[in-house]
Amino acid sequence: MDVEKFIEPSSTYHMLGSDDPYSYAQNSEYQKQLVVSAEELIFELIDKHLDIEKPSFDPNKIFRIGDFGCSIGPNTFFAVENIIKSVENKYKYKSNIKNPRIPEYHVFFNDHVDNDFNALFRNIPITRKYFPAGVPGSFHGRLFPNATLHFVHCSTALHWLSRIPKEVTETNSSAFNKGRIHYTGAKKEVKEVYSTQYRKDIKSFLSARAQELVPGGLMVLVILGFPGGVLPSESSIGIGFNILGSCLEDMVQMGKITEEEVDSFNLPFYYPSPSELKALIEENGCFNIERIERLSEPMKNEKQNLNILIKVCVSHLRAVIGGLIEEHFGNEIVEELFQLHMKKLHENPMMFDEKYRKEANYFMFLKQKSHL
């Protein structure tokens, strides 16, 4: 057994837990809409690609599902229920047996060890059709024995890196990211080391899942990225990160934090293009790509006034990175930082202009190659 596969990353990133107004559970409508928009695709592709005639999909055996990067709900429950509904449809109506047997389901909810699993299981549906279990640990490495899972789901989680590239915080490095908190708008050396780390992480993720899936196992990924040729710095994401970084610089001037603390803080996000993803999956060689499709943009058509949009944006960002801010700078600045961020967005709301909404979410349906 390779011990390296079980080493945790340098930081255990997690969403804000509990059920309070700042929690991820209360501020993840964007991610929920992506889960909903993927429902029909999952149903269609399970119907087409789930090979229930294979011994590994014997209905007398347990059908095991893993949701990687589950956070604390409720989105993970919606996704799992849709997968089970789709699998049941296949067994009921596509079997050659007159009264087909439906398998029992074991669902594994995975996230980092610091994830609020208590909140997750406190909110788990009473009417569920599966046996739930929590699996703490980084999905960038192995989490299950060989050939354990039949279906893997991972939505809006794979843009998280396992760690910040060390070069961006080293003062003598050509990729030192002084005065910035992300590669958006930074010099090309910063983008390059982020990209290198992402390639390592995706390779690790795919290799681990290929071993954990049964022969012919299926995997759905929903990944946030940018179409080819789009500059992240000219997107709402890039603009938002730059404004947040300026808020941290303001807090340096106010004496709340130090310049060194800001220079050593970088966000662990990388947003790939679909061509990057396709190349990485093909290079890995463990999966057939059955479908790549761009999902409709969540909340795009919602007519909200600017004040509400800004509040939703800041609350969502706080739920996602509030833990990172607290870990690096201490909890004393969290409230003031996000209040300042909200104030600056009111003063400069350009990121909400339609022309800057260039990010995209890509749905990918993969099937493990049967010869593995």
TrEMBL record:
Pfam families associated with the record: Methyltransf_7
Example of a GO biological process term: methylation
Transmembrane intervals: none
Alphabetical list of InterPro entries matching this protein: MeTrfase_7, MeTrfase_capping, SAM-dependent_MTases_sf
KW Magnesium (keyword) present: yes
UniProt-recorded Gene Ontology molecular function terms: metal ion binding; methyltransferase activity
UniProt xrefs under Gene3D superfamilies: Methyltransferase, alpha-helical capping domain, Vaccinia Virus protein VP39
Keyword entries, A-Z: Magnesium, Metal-binding, Methyltransferase, Transferase
UniProt keyword annotation of DNA damage present: no
Family under the similarity heading: Belongs to the methyltransferase superfamily. Type-7 methyltransferase family.
Name recorded for this polypeptide: S-adenosyl-L-methionine-dependent methyltransferase superfamily protein
Source species: Abeliophyllum distichum
